[in-house]
Design goal:
With about 575 residues, the chain is α/β, with parallel strands linked by helices. It contains 18 helices and 19 strands. It has an eight-stranded mixed β-sheet, with no helix packed on it. A hairpin with a 6-residue loop joins strand 16 and strand 17. Helix 2 crosses helix 10, helix 8 packs across helix 9 and helix 8 packs antiparallel against helix 11. The longest helix is centred in the N-terminal third of the chain and has 28 residues.
């Protein structure tokens, strides 16, 4: 384990970390520590500068302050370290920001802090135009902008105690603004992040990164190198234990779409109240006393009677749909389980959730992978699955003709029939029709075109939304189903850059000709659909990008949604 963390922390090899480790970092708000960022490149450059200036002081005691070569050496080392890390976008961004930071700190014909900020941003965008679409760019520059606001015009701290307090204050002021930025970029909030980062940032910057780099430098002296890496391992294991404890105490939170913007605005205002210079103490304290209770009082909007919230979760190449009304909560499928044993469902909710029903369309691992976790950590009233399937928990067979009603929402099973012996696992999938007033949702699992034709006449019209069969595979969503139903919205539950090419271009074109708005969890993140509201039903994507209207891109064309 620690070798993976060593590679990630010192060489930027984040791909070496497992999905479970990334989820732990996301949940604790410490992901920024595991990429080659300004923290890492800045530490290397600062260490080099201090050593070089110390040497210059020994060589020329009277003129060492005027020596230029230590600054150039620090810049060359920063470039070399970023190049060694592969010069990926985060490393290149960190290198440019560090080089300009060295220029500003040197004071030699240097720009001011804000001029340097704009210069760095301009250079990065010119060298890597695609970085404008990467949240990491804006997270980095927002953090640096707040640092400028915090430190500009303030006297330098005096003594170790003054520096310790200044760094602690800086970290506390960064926490709410970065939480707001991450919330807007990724629709998630790590409540443990402010406390965890108070420990993790100094541990990583002052101990782990220096020890890791020193271990690499001392490889010609095996005894010293082994000692550095042994210390690195001990500290890393302690840090991981701290992160796991913090996440168990304060798990990752995915607020509803309606809460994201107001919560981010209030977090940003709190950060600015305490960061902006010249504000009266009464304004800072009074504003905080108003904003903090307002944040704590935010709650997910109550659902109107007879309305249903459908959320197609972003679980990679798999499927998990949550259907929730006022007093009823159901899952259709449980998401995938990866080769490592990790199930994305673990990152969606803390343990102890209550689900009235969980319908597993069939026993493929991308649909039923999360079932063991559901049974172990959550309360499930009833599991349903097709007869003949195995999902490792007792279940009631889902059969054609079953129906029930909750909170004014009607659920009707359209497939499979009682005799499924001649059907493949995909064609045995539970097909569920959900009706809320004039709105209708159809969930078809992985059934193929022949089965679609078998239940097509039973589907009531019109269809508001369809979860595309088999993730958009060409074996499903046949011409008869598409032309007959012409759903207003089609959602593909698929992984980004998946190996199967889902959704298939032929399927995308077919729905486009039918006039359907097309969405994909691979591009849009989790997709939420409200059915049965008095106003027109609408659909929301978690990954909202103002420069790209949500849609599905195929090799031959792009399908854009008007929403």
């Amino acid at each position: 384990m620690t070798t993976r963390w060593l590679a990630a922390l010192t060489l930027g090899a984040g791909e070496r970390l497992t999905r479970e480790e990334w989820d732990l970092l996301n949940a604790s708000g410490t992901t920024h520590l595991m990429v080659i960022s300004g923290l890492h490149v800045g530490l290397v450059a600062t260490f080099t500068l201090l050593m070089a200036r110390g040497l210059a002081r020994l060589v020329a005691p009277r003129r060492w302050r005027l020596a230029v070569w230590p600054w150039w050496l620090a810049g060359v080392v920063a470039i070399g370290y970023a190049w060694l890390a592969g010069l990926q976008p985060p490393a290149m961004r960190a290198m440019i920001m560090t080089l300009i930071g060295l220029w500003v700190a040197s004071g030699r014909h240097a720009p001011g802090p804000w001029q340097a900020w704009w210069l760095a941003l301009g250079l990065i965008v010119v060298l890597d135009p695609l970085s404008v679409w990467r949240p990491g760019l804006w997270l980095s520059f927002i953090a640096v902008a707040l640092l400028i606001v915090i430190w500009q015009g303030r006297p330098r701290p005096a003594g170790p105690r003054g520096w310790a307090w200044a760094l602690l204050r800086t970290q506390l002021l960064l926490a709410p603004l970065m939480a707001a930025a991450v919330l807007l970029a990724f629709a998630r909030l790590a409540p443990a992040a402010p406390v965890v980062n108070l420990v993790a940032v100094p541990v990583v910057s002052s101990l782990l990164v220096p020890l890791g780099l020193l271990g690499w430098l001392l490889t010609p002296v095996p005894v010293l190198s082994t000692l550095c890496w042994w210390l690195f391992e001990r500290i890393t294991l302690a840090l991981i234990a701290l992160l796991e404890l913090a996440v168990a105490w304060l798990p990752l939170w995915w607020p509803s779409t309606e809460m994201i913007l107001p919560l981010a605005l209030m977090l940003g205002l709190i950060a600015l109240l305490w960061a902006l210079p010249g504000l009266a103490a009464t304004l800072r304290v009074g504003g905080s006393l108003l904003l903090v209770p307002a944040m704590l009082g935010l709650a997910e909007p109550t659902q109107e009677p007879g309305s249903l919230r459908v959320r197609i979760q972003d679980v990679g190449q798999g499927q998990l749909v949550e259907l929730r009304s006022a007093n009823y909560r159901m899952l259709y499928d449980a998401g995938p389980r990866f080769a490592s044993g990790f199930a994305p469902l673990a990152a969606l909710w803390p343990p102890g959730q209550r689900f009235d029903r969980v319908m597993v369309s069939h026993d493929d691992i991308d649909h039923a992978g999360g079932v063991p976790l559901l049974a172990e950590e959550h309360l499930v009233g009833e599991f349903l699955a097709p007869p003949g399937e195995t999902i490792d928990v007792p279940f009631t067979p889902c059969l054609r003709g079953q129906h029930w009603q909750r909170d004014g929402v009607t659920y009707r099973v359209l497939w499979p029939p009682e005799d499924t012996a001649a059907l493949s696992s995909n064609d045995r999938s539970c097909v569920l029709e959900v009706t809320v007033g004039a709105d209708r949702l159809l969930l078809t699992g992985d059934v193929g075109r022949e089965v679609e034709r078998a239940f097509l006449l039973d589907v009531e019209r019109p269809v508001t939304a369809l979860l595309a069969g088999h993730h958009g595979s060409r074996t499903s969503s046949g011409p008869q189903l598409v032309q007959s139903l012409a759903p207003r919205h089609v959602i593909y539950s698929a992984g980004r850059h998946n190996a199967f090419g889902h959704p298939h271009d032929e399927v995308v074109r077919r729905f486009r000709r039918a006039g359907s708005c097309q969405w994909s969890t691979a591009l849009d993140g989790a997709v939420t659909l409200w059915l049965g509201r008095e106003r027109e039903s609408f659909i929301q994507a978690t990954r909202v990008m103002p420069w790209r209207r949500s849609g599905v891109e195929g090799e031959c064309h792009a399908v854009e949604s008007p929403h």
